[in-house]
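User: Can you model how zinc ion sits in this protein?
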Amino acid sequence: MKIWKILSPRTIVEEERPDNISAPTQAKVKITKVLLAYPEIRAFTGASGVRLPRVPGMFAVGVVTEAGEDCVKAEKNARVFINGTYACGECSACRRGNADGCLSPVVAGEDCDGFLRDFAVCEEAHLFPLPPSVSDNEALFTGVVSLCEGIVDKLDVPKGTHVAVVGAGVTGIILSQLLIYHQAVPILIDADEEKLSVAAKCGIYYTFKADEELMRNLNEVTGGRMAEGCVFTSFCGLADDLPFAITAKRGKVIYAGMEFPEMSVHLKKALDKELCVLGATRDYAQCAGAINLLVNKAVDFKPLTAEETNAADIPALFNAKAQLWEKEKRAPLTILDMI
Ligand SMILES: [Zn+2]
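Assistant: Here's the modeled complex, given as C-alpha cells:
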C-alpha cells in the first residue's frame, strides 16, 4: 500500500508499506477522499510542537474492500467515514473500561499515522457506514461536527441563550450552525470580513467584526447582558483572552479545537467575573450522532466550499498550500480525491 509521509519540514514523500488485516475485527478500506485543512499544513511547515515524521490526514472517507470475519457493520463495498480519533486504551478511564471517557484520545495524523494513503487497515469500531443521503464531501466533516456537538453538550445552555463564537473558521461556522439547530443564538466574531460573509451565507444571523464596535454591538444584541456562553476556536488569530471581556458574569467559556497553540491569558479577568473556563478537544464519542446530524441536514456545508483536487502531485499541492499560508495566512480547505 502507498502512504505519503512528511519526513521533515516541507518534505513529503511517497512510500510503500505492507499493511494487511491482522485481526478478525479489522477491515481494509480503500481511501476515496481526504480533507486537507490547517493541521496538515501546520505539520508540513514544521510549526512548533509538531512531531515529524508523520503521515498526515485527520479526516477521510473510503469504501470497505475486505472485512474480517468478526466485522458486523463494515461490509464489503460499504461507504464509510473513518473516525481518526480514538481511545488510547492505556489511561485510567480506558483501563476501567470507560473508553468514551478516555483522558487522552489519540488523533490520526497527529499522534499516529493519518489517512493520506491509498488503503487503510482499521478496527471496525472506527468505521461509520454512511447513509446514501450523506455525500462523501459532507461526511469528511463528521469529525468536526462531532467535536462541535461535544462543545454544545459542554455549553449546556437553555434555548435562546446568546453564545459568542470567536473565530469564523470551519469549526466556528459549523458550531454556530449547530447552536442554531439546538435553538441557541450564536454571535460569530472574526477579524476577517470574508470569513464572516461565508458564515452569513450559512444562515448565521449575527456576525460581528472584531473591531472597536464589537462591545457596543454585543451590548445591543444581548440587551446589555453580554454572551452567557463563549467558545474560542483555536488558531483563530484573535486575542486569547477576548472571551473574558465578552462573556457575562458567571458565564461559561470553552476553548475548543483539535489542538491548541501555546496560549497565555490574564486569568484575573476571568476570576473577577467568576467565569467557568473549560477546554474541548478531540471529542470522538459523538460520530454516530454527528452522522445523524448530517442526515438531518443540520449543517449547510455548501458555502464552506473546499476546492477539490486529485492526488496526482501531492508534494506540489502541499508546497502551494504552505506558500499561501506563509504569504497570506490562509489555509483554505482542500478535498483530495484519492482515486
Ligand atoms: Zn484512554
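A couple of observations from the model: Residues 3 and 117 are 4 Å apart (CA to CA). The pocket of zinc ion is lined by residues 87-88, 90-91, 93-94, 102-104 (CB under 6 Å).
User: Helpful, thanks.
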